[in-house]
From TrEMBL:
Organism: Anatilimnocola aggregata
Protein's name in the database: Zeta toxin
Length: 214
């Protein structure tokens, strides 16, 4: 995306919700087409390969943790540089911490654009099933005992980001049948926030409503 101002797109959601799937939805893919993708998971895979041909399955727990931390910090620093240089970038995150708030503030302070996409599932149990399937296919795992806390923290962070987004889409991706498209729950644009399906995930609806006052 060619612009004299920074464009920040964040694709967020709990572990296993389907953030990569969300980015492939046509209306989202079109907006992200010109954005540089900065993904800590992808960088972690590269770093493990460079350090002896390791994979998410063959690396030790200590190596995985160190690599994930290094990749996350590297991506964060690269994002800061990109936004300072008025580039268009897209980040994927569980959103379990306020870490990316400073990137949003950097973008807005420079007069830039912030777009936010959130994909949710109805419970941490769904996340656990999705992650188990991902590991079976060669992807990285997440300790099961951390999933519930991350699911809750992700929703707790949501209002702050939705409030500041120029454009936002929120989806439910809880369907059990593989290939079922995520269902649109809410949209935010110049006309304001519209919650189209408040019944699907009550916790998400509550978080979206909080964005109107947080």
């Amino acid at each position: 995306m060619s612009s004299n101002l920074p464009y920040l797109w964040i694709v967020a959601g709990p572990n296993g919700a389907g953030k990569t799937t969300l980015a492939q939805i046509p209306r989202i893919a079109a907006k992200l087409a010109s954005a540089e993708r900065l993904n800590p998971d992808d960088l972690s895979k590269v770093l493990l390969q460079q350090r002896g041909g390791f994979t998410f399955q063959t690396a030790s727990a200590e190596m995985l943790q160190a690599t994930f931390i290094e990749a996350a910090e590297s991506v964060f620093q690269e994002a800061q540089i990109a936004l300072t240089n008025n580039r268009s970038i897209c980040l994927e995150t569980v959103l379990s911490t306020p870490k990316y708030r400073s990137l949003v503030e950097l973008t807005l302070n420079r007069g830039g654009f912030f777009g936010f996409f959130y994909i949710a599932v109805k419970s941490p149990e769904i996340s656990a099933i999705r992650i188990a399937n991902r590991v079976a296919e060669g992807g990285h795992g997440v300790p099961t005992d951390k999933l519930a806390a991350r699911w809750e923290r992700s929703l707790a962070q949501l209002p702050w980001f939705v409030k500041r987004a120029h454009y936002m889409l929120a989806y439910d991706n809880s369907a059990e049948v593989k290939g079922t498209p995520p269902e649109l729950i809410a949209i935010k644009n110049a006309s304001g926030l519209q919650i189209k399906r408040p019944d699907l995930i009550p916790e998400l609806t509550h978080a979206l409503q909080q964005s109107l006052s947080s």
